[in-house]
Structure formats: structure tokens, C-alpha cells
């Protein structure tokens, strides 16, 4: 049988999400549930992939299938596509497997032309409505399908309103709109050199093609990379009969959630507008009414509406986000999906659904995205400072959290300044999908226009970024880059602080703090810990970080990078002295100065861990990193050490590396200067004995040797470590368990892991270096060219952020198996950046590592990702 590329809604079902996309599958389900859905059909994701395979053309056989379905739709609706008497109009919308709000394109009112619009006017006895629909269609089709700038049309409508002395679009008359249609067609002809297409079939095929094309537009690509959505999924296209919310005062349109997406409360939540089309609600041009008002306006319809909302939530067993339209008093549901929600809402809904018996704990933990937890851990305003601050304005609390930064007026500016390490708040009149990268880079987002379902609000909530929307009190001049409120002008140099939980805006810098894990969050995380098998440790170099990580649920330290202690102000001089020393004796003298400081650091870290395990790595970076760079710093170092500046210059020259990452670093330092490893081992063991004796904590230090590539190299350094540790223990007269292991971060180590395991009691995969050395990409420079790789679809993801499972991952898997083959009880962990990335965590779970280790703020995320991996892989 030939492959089918187009399905009527009534032919599909809920299990066909991959093929029909989320929206398409849900429309089929709604049809089956008997919910009033305007009928239509779905062009599959496979058709999208075929479009790309065929060199971006839509094949004749798919066109034929679409036309056949169109005929069916005509039969069903009793209307005719392109008819001059009773025309059928449709919407064309994208619909990928997972929803990507605002990322791809939509065309409404398709099927209108110069004749059909007349027919519509007559048929509805409402020429205003007919011409309004037509001018919207011309604008959308021109913009989305034909790439004619939207602004050209918007200028015309603004001109017309000004000419007529009216404020709202709805105040324009049929005649005004008719005139606008002519102006719009002129714009089209001028821009495209041909008349606006009058053939509905052509309009349809062009529009379907445009949706396929939009799958690969730059903002969709960025969104996919951010949300881990593979390019190969493709998007489906839904063609659906239009129903009209702009047919007059008995018509309307709304966006509704079955629970509150901001805080998770079990209440219907949403907004609607009478005499409007969906885009008016989302675009935030007119301010919509809360859905509760509908009950007052039309109690009977409201009841029907509530029944459907409940039916859908019960069916999907999750909070639904629905679009509805009322056409001359009749209710339709245009789509439903699991609603995007803030992190606090996600937790509350998950816990509430379990407590009401609707879902299991396992199902609940799949309902919260690991990345979302981030927002709960990131700053809120520091209470004391907040009390002293006075808001300068208030907008809608669109996405919770707190943000403080200097003002950026364009997305591009936000992106650039954030890349330079500046904290910025993006302030815009309103946002559009083109702003996505700036929105990602900003600490928070502030808009003048738009409601709770405006683009800024929806996208910010999805990303977990703090957002205050629709603050009409402030004036933004995007051109001059100024923000004006209460008679005061703010520029790019001024700080503002915004509170996405209250909607308050402050014209000053307010300190932010990190909240604790309590309430629903704590309940939820307790389920997470019940379910997961993979342990989660943290990468922490200071007692403060260790303490923070323990509060976030870390089960020990997986990587303590000791070099970070070397940079501290009170010890860098001794470190430099050690590096510049000409012989072992001088080096040992300098090391003796460092020893007590390192010991004190380790004591504090062990105390923060209260007996939990700590993997401490011996010195890793190339030594030149510690030496001064500027002439001035060199001179002052020479003075401090009381030596000639030439000596410093010589040392800097001598330590210079051509390829620092592949240079004199890691265990190579211990091979050349064993006394460094000796000092560090002594500090580690002496500190452990001190806490054992004084605090009763039984710490088992895990001494980790970095950058091993050969077992004999490991053996050499290990012998130094063991000899020193034994000496310290006999000096102190105390026995202590300790382990010696290594990082696996060089491909050769992975390839010979069976031999290495004979000497190593544990492995910790350093996937940062392992990625660098497997790809041959410099960790420091890859960002320069990776964008070109994304654009050309050679790679879709940054391999330093998301583990390359097919390459680097295979080395990890192989080393795991080889390691266990010679040491069955070897402890296996990972401490590269990938330890905090959800899909990488799932991979580590699957290949059977014992733990992942990540930065403190990612610990809760990794715990959740580990639990999800357990649930998904049990299935
Ligand atoms: C690694 O290489 O993955 C690692 C954790 O070590 P570092 O990032 O310090 O090189
Ligand atoms: Mg490394």
C-alpha cells in the first residue's frame, strides 16, 4: 500500500502523535470524544520530511491527497472551497510532536478572494466581518508565505485609524476595511510584482509549503536546540475549517487553561475577547477579559464550556491549554494541549493530581521538566532590600522569579551585552518570536503591551525566565533607547529590577537571593529520590558551594577542583613562588606555605559534607595560568618575591604553552613535580583525620588523578599518593579509609580502561576533556565555529553541553564495561558538564554509572532527570 500522508481528523487517534504532531493527534482525539471541533485534516510530519528530502518541493501525490481531503471537508461542511456563494475558509497551522509556541507560522481565513469575500458579506449579512477577514488573510499570507513585511500593512491600518479618528481596529467600518483591502493588494503587487493570488487551491498549497519551510526558520532552530527537539521530527500541518470569533458581538475567542498556569491552582484560568480572532488575544493589541466574565455574559454557554474543559483534563490527566471560539453563540474548541506552566505550577499540579488519585507518582515526575526546576532555585529578591524599595510601576505577573540588570532595548543588544557578562533586563513594547535569543540571554523580560497569554508571557514561562508583561504605565522609545515612567527617564546604563511574581517594577538595583526547597517542591523531590537509582553528587570547590549543594540534595562531592583554591588572594603568591622555584628544595619551601591553607580548605569542605564522600582532584591546569600576564603584575610579583623581573619573564616564557589543553597539565604535573602531589595528598589526609578526630565524621577521601592516558602513568602518581597517605597516617597514629582513582578524560584512557582499572578504585568520566579530545575541538574556541555547524545541520547540539552519545558516549560505555571487567566493584561516575544535562543523565543511567556530578544549582535537576530515566527505562 502506498504511504498515506494526509489524514482527516476523524481518521486519526491519540497514539499517532509522532505522525500527526501533537495538535493533529489531539484534534483527532477531540473529534472522537464528541467535542465540537471544526473539522479538517492533518498533513503528516512524514510529508514534511519528504518535502525536505525532495529538495524543498511538495510532491504531486501529496497535493492530490490534500485535494481529496479538501473534497471530504467540503462534503462534511456543505461549503465549497473557492465558491462564490458559500465559500469554505480554512486555517493552516503548524503542529510538531511537541508544541513550540509562536515558533512556526499560522495562516487564517484562507480561501478568501475578491469574489468569495463578496459571498461572505452577503451570506453573513456582515460586510464588515467579511472585509476584516480578507484584510487579515492578505496580511498573513503576504507575511508568512510570501515574505512581504508585516509592517507595511500595519502602517496602513494605523494610517486609516488616524484618518478616521478612531482608536481600535473594531471601530473601522466595512467601507474602511474594503479600502484597506485594496491598499493591501496594492502593497502585495508592488512587492511581489504580481496580483494577490485568487486561486484558493494555490493559496492552500503555498501555505502548507510555508509551514514546512518554517520548520527550519532561524527562531525554530534556536527553539529546538534550547528544548532538545531533533530536527528530523519535522512538523505536521493542520488544515481546519474556520469558525469566526469576529462575526459581531455574539462571537468571540479565548485562550483557556484548565488550571492556573502561573501558580497551579485548580481553577479555570483564561482570557477572551468578543468580536475578535485568536491573534488579537495572543498579540495583546486589545486587552482581553478574564474568563469568569463569560459566566455573567452567557451562563448556558459557560456551562457547556466548563464541561468540555473538565472532559479534556480528565481524558489527558493533565492541565490543558485550549483555544476556543464562539461563532454567533455556538461554542467550538479549536485545539487542546498539555499546558505550559511555571515551575511552581508544575509542581503543584503534579502533587495535586497524585493526591486526587488521577495519576501515580511515577507519572507525576514525568510532568515536570528537569530544566524548569532551575527557576525555583534561582534568585528571588532579598527581603530586606525589597522592603526598602518602592515600585515605579506595576505590570502583569507573567512569569515568576526576580531579575535585576541594566536595561537592554533590543533582543540583539540583550544577547550581546549578556555575552559580555553583563546582567540585562530586556525591555520591549512587546516581543515577537524573532526576539528569542535576546529573551534567552536576558535575566528578565519586561513588556509594555500584551496579556498573560502574550508571546512574551508564554515564552518566558516556558523558559523559566522572570517576566512582567503589559505594563502600560511605562513608555518605551525603542529608537532612542529610553524608558520613561513617572516623569523619569531610564537608559541602557540604568538598573531596573522586576518581580515576575507580583508584577512590580523597580527603578533600582535590588539584591537577589536563592530560595529553599519546601512545600510541593519538597514533596515532589521526595518522590524523585524514592524512584531514582542513579546517585547525584556535586562539583564544588568551596565549602560554600558544598553546603549549597547539600541543601539541594547532593550526596557528596564528585569533583573538587583544587586549583580554584590556588587562585585565592591569600595564596596566589605562594603558588607563584612554587612555580618560579628553580629547584625541588625551593619548590618544597613554597609548598610548605600552601599546605596549611589547603588543609584548612579541606577541613571546611568535609565539615560541609557531614561525612558524605568527597572526590578531590589533584592539581590539573597548566601552570602558566597562575602566572601574571601584564608587565605591571610581573613587576609587582618581582618586588614581592624580591627577585629580578627577568626571572619572572623567563619563567613565564618557559611555562608558555602552544596547546595549553594538551600541554603540561593534569597528572603530567605530578610526574614532573611529585612534591606537588605529595603536598596535596598530605593536606587531604591530614584534614580527613582532623575531622574524624575532632568532629567524628568518617570521611573516606577519594583522591583523583586527572588526565591519565596510560596505566603506568597512573601507577607512578598513585605510588606517590599512597606512600604519602600511609606516612601521614602513621605520623598521626590514625587509620583511615581512602581511595585512589582517576579521571577518564583522554580517549586512550577509555580504550585501555581495563588496564587502568587494575590500578584505579574509581573512574570519574571527565566528559569535558573527553569531548574535546574525541572531537578534536578546543573547549575554549569551539563556540566560534559551532554556529556554522548548526546552520549547516552537521551538528544540532553543542557537544560540550549535551553528551554526544554516538561518539563520546560510546567511549564512556566501553570504558565502563572494560573497567568492570578487571575490577567488578569499581565505582563509576561522571563529573563533566554533562552531569547536569537531562538527556545525558538518562544515558549515564542506561549504561549503569553509579552517580553523576554537577554544579550545585543543577543538583535538583539531575535528581529529577535520574528519576525520569528510571521511569522511562522501566517501561
Ligand atoms: C572534565 O574534563 O570533564 C572535567 C570535569 O575536568 P575539567 O573541566 O576541570 O577539565
Ligand atoms: Mg578535565
From TrEMBL:
Q: Residue ranges of the PEP-utilising enzyme mobile domain?
A: 422-503
Q: Which reaction does it catalyse?
A: pyruvate + phosphate + ATP = phosphoenolpyruvate + AMP + diphosphate + H(+)
What residues does the PEP-utilising enzyme C-terminal domain cover?
519-870
Provide any one GO MF term from the record.
Answer: kinase activity
Under the heading Pfam families, the entry gives:
PEP-utilizers (PF00391), PEP-utilizers_C (PF02896), PPDK_N (PF01326)
Q: Which residues make up the binding site for substrate?
A: 561, 617, 745, 766-769
Arranged from A to Z, the UniProt key words for this protein are: ATP-binding, Kinase, Magnesium, Metal-binding, Nucleotide-binding, Pyruvate, Transferase
Q: Which residues form the active site?
A: 455, 831
Residue stretches spanning the membrane: none
Keyword Thylakoid: yes or no?
A: no
Principal EC category: transferase
Q: Which domain of life is it from?
A: Bacteria
Locate the residues binding Mg(2+): 745, 769
The EC number(s) this enzyme carries = 2.7.9.1
Query: Is Ion transport one of the keywords UniProt gives this record?
Result: no
What does this protein need as cofactor? Mg(2+)
Q: Which residues form the Pyruvate phosphate dikinase AMP/ATP-binding domain?
A: 57-288, 303-348
Q: Which family does it belong to?
A: Belongs to the PEP-utilizing enzyme family.
What protein name does the entry list? Pyruvate, phosphate dikinase
- Species of origin reads Clostridium thermobutyricum
